[in-house]
Amino acid sequence: MSNFFALNSITTGRGWSVNVTGYTNALRKLVCCLFMLFFSTAYAFSQQKLATGEHFADVNGVKLHYYVSGKGPVCLAPSPGWGAHVDYMRSLTPFEKHFTMVYYDTRKSGLSSGPDDPTKYTDQDFMNDMDSLRTYLGLSKVWLTGHSGGGYQVLNYGSLYNDHVNGIIALDAMARYDSLHHAEMMKVINETKNGPEFEKAKAAFFGKDTVKRTMDEFLEVILPLYFTNTQIIRTIPKLKVSDKAYAYTRASNIFKSKNLLDDLHNIKVPVLVIVGDGDFICGVESEAKRIHAHIPTSRLVIVKNAGHLPWIEQPKEFYKAFEQWAKEQHI
């Protein structure tokens, strides 16, 4: 019979038939509804994870602490990795006009947890955390912003997982710690850090004093080296540093064990490389220009009269360059 299939009941012996077409259509509708319900629930859940405010993500056996702020495509912004809290990165508020910024503390930094095992703070551990956070947030692709050691992380991630990245903003980033890096650091210090406000900072940085300090205290003493105008330090909040994170990352030799320059050609997405012309720790010649030279899709911006944090020292010039680049990326 057309569109019907006759069956016999085993218990009664009676003949009965089932409308296969109607049954199939109903089943399809049910599957479709369940499919839509699943993905709408998953979407709603992912949106909760990206609601404005403070959150924690359980990934790789650690709780990553993160803040969400802004509107637009998601941009992950890790802390530098060696212990500094991510709070200072939240001063990049103009970015939030273009992105939903996700500022997160890397393992053991800030309010994030982390294993008490220095072997668990390698380059790959930080890459796994970044990729797991992307997955946790339900995103196939993200933008990335990183400063200093955070810049190292986002460039490293881009070279390994280019297909999961929309674009990268590398702020005073590092890619290779070598003799060229060290030579430029010493040159900048010797030529530009000679006022009385730098003497105590240089003595602490080069280990010439014997004062025992926490990392918070040490960073406060050496902070003048990071600026061309030391007066601006009075206007910014004190940076917080996790002593354990610093000890563990130092023991794992992160930032020094890998030459990122060899892999940067794998990055095919747009990259904005910004550096202060007076940065002593991630210099123009040894870091920014070499990074730019190894990424064909990159643009280099050198901010004049700025040190390691150009968006704080020269916000007008810094954000003008960023806004122009962001407009070209249609974000």
TrEMBL record:
<protein>
    <submittedName>
        <fullName>Pimeloyl-ACP methyl ester carboxylesterase</fullName>
    </submittedName>
</protein>
<dbReference type="GO" id="GO:0016787">
    <property type="term" value="F:hydrolase activity"/>
</dbReference>
<feature type="signal peptide">
    <location>
        <begin position="1"/>
        <end position="44"/>
    </location>
</feature>
<dbReference type="GO" id="GO:0016020">
    <property type="term" value="C:membrane"/>
</dbReference>
<dbReference type="InterPro" id="IPR029058">
    <property type="entry name" value="AB_hydrolase_fold"/>
</dbReference>
<dbReference type="InterPro" id="IPR050266">
    <property type="entry name" value="AB_hydrolase_sf"/>
</dbReference>
<dbReference type="InterPro" id="IPR000073">
    <property type="entry name" value="AB_hydrolase_1"/>
</dbReference>
<dbReference type="Pfam" id="PF00561">
    <property type="entry name" value="Abhydrolase_1"/>
</dbReference>
<keyword id="KW-0378">Hydrolase</keyword>
<keyword id="KW-0732">Signal</keyword>
<feature type="domain" description="AB hydrolase-1">
    <location>
        <begin position="80"/>
        <end position="313"/>
    </location>
</feature>
